[in-house]
Structures are given as C-alpha cells and as structure tokens.
Specification:
By secondary structure, the chain is of the alpha/beta class. It folds into two domains: about 1-75 and about 370-415, Urease, subunit C, domain 1, CATH 2.30.40.10; about 75-360, Metal-dependent hydrolases (TIM Barrel), CATH 3.20.20.140. About 35% of the residues lie in helices and about 25% in strands. The chain is built from 15 helices and 17 strands. The strands form two sheets. Strands 6, 7, 8, 9, 10, 11, 12, 13 and 14 form a nine-stranded parallel beta sheet that branches. Strands 1, 2, 3, 4, 5, 15, 16 and 17 form an eight-stranded mixed beta sheet that branches. A hairpin with a 2-residue loop joins strand 2 and strand 3. The longest helix is centred in the middle third of the chain and has 18 residues, at about 195-210. It is globular and about 70 Å long. The two termini are about 25 Å apart.
C-alpha cells in the first residue's frame, strides 16, 4: 500500500537508478526520463517507479494522482539564500534606477548595513513570522531543500538569532534546511575590520558551533569587504569547529575568491559574475562546485556567469536564487532556470541538472535528494501540462508547478 501513487506521467524526469554526486561538462546535457510512467511513495520516500505498462495491477494507494500530460521531477535544491531578513529595501532599488552603484549604496549606509540595522531591532519571533511567508512562496515554485545564511546581524547575538530562525524553519516547515554562518558579510560601523574578524573567530564561530546552529561557514570575499587572506583566515577558523566552507566569490570584481575557495576546499564558490580562464583552471580537479546566481546578476545589471565557458571546459555548474532583500528579492528557482537558459545559453537539461543534482552536492544531499531514485526522500513536483522541460524556461513568467510533494505529503496544490 502506497501513500501516494502518481500515474500516467507524461515524462518522469531526472530518473537515476543510483545516486551520484554531481554531473559535469557534457554529462549535464543528460537528463534521463521515462514516458508514460508511474511514481510511488510511502513513508516519506520514493519506493517505486517505472513504465505504466509495468505497474502491478494490485498496486493501491491512499492518494492516486493522474499526471497525464504533465512532467514529474525532483523538487529544486536552492543552495544559496538569505531568506531570513527583517525588511525589504525597495528604496535602494530606486537609487539603483537613478544610477547608484552597489558600492555607492553601501557607502551611504545602505546595503548590508541597512539590513543589519533593521534586523538588530527585530525579534526572533517576528523574523520567523516574516520568513515563513517567503518559505510558502518558494515551496509553491518547487523548492524542496534550501540553504539559509546569516549575515544581517553583524554581532554575535544577532547572527545567532538569524541562525536559530533558519534552524526553526527546518523544524516547522517541510523544507530540508541547511544553515550557513556568514558573519563576514560586511564590517559594522562601530568596529574596525580587524576587531570584527577577531569577534567572528573568537566569539561567533565557537558560539554557533556550540549551539549546533550552522553547517557551513561563508565569507563575502570581495573588494571593499574581505580580502582573500582575511577570507582564508576566517574559513580556517570555521573548519576547526567543523564548519564546511562555501564562499561568495567574484561577484563585483576578480577578487581572488575562487582561488581561496579551491585552496580551502570550499564545497562551493557562488556568484562568479567576474571570472575567466584563470579561475576555471583553478576549479578543475577541485572539490569546489561553481554556482551561479543569475537572479542577482539580472537585478543588479551585472555580467552573467559565463556558463558555456565553464561547462564546455568540463566543469559542473549549479544554479541558486540568492534570495535576499538587496540584490535578488525573489526565490523562484524556475525564474533562475529561465535566466540561465536565456542569458547564459544553458540548455534546459543543463539548467535542471544545475538546479537539482549539482546544488544538492553543495548541501551534502546528493544521496537523499534531487533525483528520482528508490529510497530517496519523496520530494517531487508535478508541473502544469507541458510537453518537455524546455517549457519551464520558455514560460519564464509562469509558475510551471502545479503540485508540490515534500517528504511524501502534498504541500502545495494549484490545480
């Protein structure tokens, strides 16, 4: 007896008999699928799948869903977000429209410091309440697993507050949540950079580790923020407390972030709007996944990650949203997949792999999420009627998701 049985699936997408860590290069074009298929779930796991002609006549389920004309694929894995924040920053959006740069807004007290002021004045309970609205939003567009960073506290107390909220999201919602300590997001105005780095290393990291609030350590390695040397120092301190590095790298400049990410064995380097052959060569043979955040490039008017150069060189690539109030105020993975295809010349199959298998790798979820594989967590989406995965980026203004099933339970249904 199954809990949920989906029948007559037009295409069951991302079918993998065995779990794999990630796909790279030309393998990113391969997206195995079954036509006229079924998918069965029980006890929160994928228990069976195959062609409709092979569905046992005795198969029964508490809930049966007919997915005729629709695709079924694993839910998206968003490996880079700042989902917990106190307020939006549309006033800065207007400043951008008038010509202000990211750096000019930051220098005027906007940007990360603006979010930090607001967050420090907001209670943990209110932060959670606001974040849950965003959680509902991202689930409706197909996200089933997510990474959430701190970074808008800029004090030990407030960074830990953010991480507690992020951890709580993983308890009170069906999302699979991984958390990242990003104390080194900016330097607060009341401290020198060296004073703040000392606070991160001596207070913040040990406190987050002691409360088991973070899985990862992150640094905004960028000109005007934290240098490669400072980044390495903070990351190594995090590693001593069991935190795995993942870095903001090469968003605004050729910052050296990719190289320090490779050197410190970061699981990912994210953004990559400003990289070239030197960074691509550094990534080859490393454990570090390059991850593009096309929504941020779109919103800020920055160059898009050179996906074709990265993939054609034989590397893997991930796609995430960077959902945050300043540079990517939206958490739709389908929209970011569309941007990757339209602006970065990725094929739909490559983009789906980038938004599932490859981002799952960076969150340590390769063997539990992101593919249709027996024994994996039953996190799947059923699309609106469509012929192929190309319809997802093609209809970039339309939510392609009809139903979301997380942990084997129907969470969102827009049928």
């Amino acid at each position: 007896m199954y809990d949920i049985l989906i029948t007559h699936i037009h295409k069951l997408v991302q079918v993998r008999e065995q779990a794999l860590d990630f796909v790279r290069g030309s393998a990113m074009r391969e997206l195995p699928s079954l036509e006229n298929a079924y998918l069965a779930m029980a006890d929160g796991q994928i228990t069976d799948f195959g062609l409709m002609e092979n569905l046992p006549a005795s198969a029964k389920a508490t809930t049966v869903i007919n997915a005729s004309g629709r695709l079924v694929l694993p839910s998206f894995v968003d490996s880079h977000t700042h989902l917990v924040f106190a307020d939006t920053r549309e006033e800065e959006f207007v400043m951008k429209l008038k010509g202000a740069t990211y750096q000019q807004i930051a220098a005027a007290g906007g940007g990360i410091l603006n979010s930090a002021r607001k967050l420090q004045q907001t209670s943990e309970e209110e932060l959670l309440e606001k974040a849950l609205v965003r959680v509902a939003e991202v689930i409706k567009t197909g996200t089933g697993a997510i990474e959430i960073k701190s970074g808008y506290g800029l004090t030990t107390k407030d960074e830990l507050k953010m991480l507690r909220v992020a951890r709580k999201i993983g308890v009170v919602t069906p999302l699979t949540v991984k958390t990242t300590l990003l104390g080194a997001h900016a330097v607060p105005k009341d401290k020198s950079k060296e004073q703040y780095i000392e606070e991160i290393i001596a207070e913040m990291i040990p406190a987050a580790a002691e409360e088991k609030l973070a899985d990862y350590i992150d640094v905004f390695c960028e000109t005007g923020f934290f240098s490669p040397e400072e980044t390495e120092r903070i990351v190594e301190a995090g590693k001593q407390h069991g935190l795995i590095p993942r870095l903001h790298a090469n968003q605004l400049n050729r910052s050296g972030g990719v190289q320090v990410g490779v050197k410190t064995k970061a699981i990912s380097v994210d953004h990559l709007e400003n990289i070239g052959e030197e960074e691509i060569q550094a990534l080859k043979g490393s454990v570090t996944m390059p991850v593009s955040l096309p929504g941020a490039a779109f919103f800020l008017g920055l160059p898009f990650t050179p996906a074709r150069q990265i993939i054609d060189s034989g590397l893997p690539l991930g796609i995430a949203t960077d959902y945050n109030p300043g540079s990517a105020p939206g958490g739709s993975m389908p929209f970011n997949i569309a941007l990757a295809c339209i602006k970065m010349r990725m094929l739909p199959e490559e983009a789906i792999n980038a938004a599932t298998i490859n981002t799952a790798y960076t969150l340590g979820l390769s063997h539990t999420h992101a593919t249709i594989t027996k024994g994996k967590v039953a996190n799947v989406i059923i699309t609106q009627p469509m012929r192929s995965v190309a319809a997802i980026p093609y209809g970039f203004c339309t939510n392609p998701v009809s139903q979301v099933i997380l942990n084997g339970k129907i969470i969102s249904d827009s049928k």
